[in-house]
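Kindly go through one protein, given below as sequence and tokens. The question is how this chain folds according to its tokens.

***
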Amino acid sequence: MTASPQPDIDLPVTSVEEALPGQAAYTKVSLRIYDLMVLGFSNRFLWGCPTDELLKLYDRNVSASHLDVGVATGFFLDRCRFPVERPRLALLDLNQTCLDTAARRVARFSPEIYRANVLQPIAIEAPPFQSIAMTYLLHCLPGPMSRKAAAFGYLKAHLAPGGRFFGATILGRGVTHNALGRRVMALYNAKGIFGNAEDDAESLRQALAQHFVEVELRMQGRVAVFTARNG
């Protein structure tokens, strides 16, 4: 098997060191409470996007050959409805602890494991995937959106023609955060856990349209939920 060709992207390559703050918060300890705190509390009460809405996104778009990017605990892969009993499943993350945690949770699928920085060319020597998800990773990447958009190109290189690209991200501009949400946003951006202070829906839509066709974006609270197709 040969690696998919990499796209021609004339953007600064983000080093692993620059990307580390956004994923360093995901430790063995924090991942034990991730589902409860992030998917249970924060999604509903801070970001206005109940986790069930994101699970429905997976159910509608996940394929029999799927790459999940920014895997956290593997919650959605564990709960979603794949169209076949034994899908080809791959996990990609910069954080080895997240990869290990998610891989254990979906061990029944014997997932492929890839440790990579999505803001650099990604070497996967395997056939392309029919679907790729990037859920709650984009707001952890260092901005601005024009720089983050490099990830779309690098991932597109591993998406089959006609394949679906989908996900969700918390926005920092053009949305109204509640009082606690504003405090959490400010703290996370100051620490480098989030890099979304300047992210808005239109810049995300434009970035997706540079790489994909049939881009659909809708707001669920302060979260942009998106789907697109590889033309």
Notes: Confidence is low (pLDDT under 50) at residues 1-16. The two ends are 23 Å apart (CA to CA).
